[in-house]
Amino acid sequence: xxxxxxLKQTPLHALxxxxxxxxxxxxxxxxxxxxxxxxxxEHLHTRSAAGLFDVSxxxxxxxxxxxxxxxxxxxxxxxxxxxxxxxxxxxxxxxxLFTDNDGHILDDLMVxxxxxxxxxxxxxxxxxxxxxxxxxxxxxxxxxxxxDDRALIALQGPRAESVLAELWADIATMRFMDVAExxxxxxxxxxxxxxxxxxxxxxxxxxxxxxxxxxxxxxxxPDVMPIGLGARDSLRLEAGLCLYGNDxxxxxxPVEAGLEWAxxxxxxxxxxxxxxxxxxxxxxxxxxxxxxxxxxxxxxxGKAPVRGGAPLFADAEGKVPAGTVTxxxxxxxxxxxxxxxxxxxxxxxxxxxxxxxxxxxxxxxTVSALPFVTPTYKR
Amino acid sequence: MLKFTDEHEWLxxxxxxxxxxxxxxxAEQLGDLVFVELPESGTALDKxxxxxxxxxxxxxxxxxxxxxxxxxxxNQAIVDDPALVNSDPQGAGWFFKLKLSxxxxxxxxxxxxxxxxxxx
Lengths: 379, 120
Fold this sequence. Notes:
A: 379 residues; alpha+beta; Elongation Factor Tu (Ef-tu), domain 3; six-stranded mixed beta sheet; six-stranded antiparallel β-barrel; B: alpha+beta; CATH 2.40.50.100; 4 helices
């Protein structure tokens, strides 16, 4: 990314500033890292009530089949992702990964079946590259649109449903990963029951022109607090969710990342549409034989947070390399430091004692099951 | 006598002992602290050397030794409860006491008016 170019703003930029947010550059956008309440309170509020996030920097893409048949769009997209898109029912959403020819991960994304088209949400830092990738491989079968006239917000936490039910009563009928269209304050929105916090919650795509008005009204609810990128990161880390660019990237495969669950049976060996995505030989090979390393949860035993980039060792003297931490910090709900990273396959069992190098010291850290908090998705 | 550095530390000078902490401005910029690591008593440090490490939820930051000297006491209270640094940065949230090698060196530090101008 060219850091010299001027920062872009989301449709909610003025709102963040008026709320006293501290703004930082993130993926080319001027984004709120925290509001006056601070990262700790924002994190805990999201887990106890409801937190509102601006995620408008992410890419929203429409994939419309030229034939008019949604199956054609699904099969076309399946050429780029190791995911069962054809089997995704109307009104449902699914996690997916773009892979490259070596089986590495180009981006992670959400795919929704919206009846006559597919709706994709991709990472902000990858959206131009993703769109070019889609255009190149799907341009002949689909009409592609990268939406620049919609905001995206997330409302996450145990009160998210009751807050939105005051605006749209049917919201309670949605299950985890359902996608629906509804008017909030008379503004047509696309709502999915999903998120990036480990909490029940919703992601809402809103026409840009009405985004500030709808968001301000939701923020007026006493249960709702605005949440910045700082708490978004600590929430997703406790929930064991990958951050593209940290935990998954073009050096990691879905199997190494422990994302086998994202590859449905239809695309695995022996499935109805086995393989047929970039890097299938590598990924299906790792499926059968396992990968040489794997992403695991890591719990530092002391009070010191262990951050991304910290080398891991099997011994307290730092002689036997065991892997690398990819994300780490303090978990406000876990109330202890939390981390994740890649370790060699010999060290992946939960309870394995390792050592992380932090400021020249070797701190004990234990391989632990992810997530660090119990998710409350409404399945 | 109260002095400041452009690294956002304050020093309360009593004879050849400086009590050192981070300013309210620095504490606010760092956000809620969750971890503090302090130097042990007896450690000799040069000006500019890393004396302490603080971590917020989001990031780790170093606190530099403002002048040459030797650590004579560290504030265990902020190790046990890092939030003290945020709630009372220029009081109970002090970091360490430094026996200055050259007490006259404090003259080169900022006074309160100059520091306020720096962060204005």
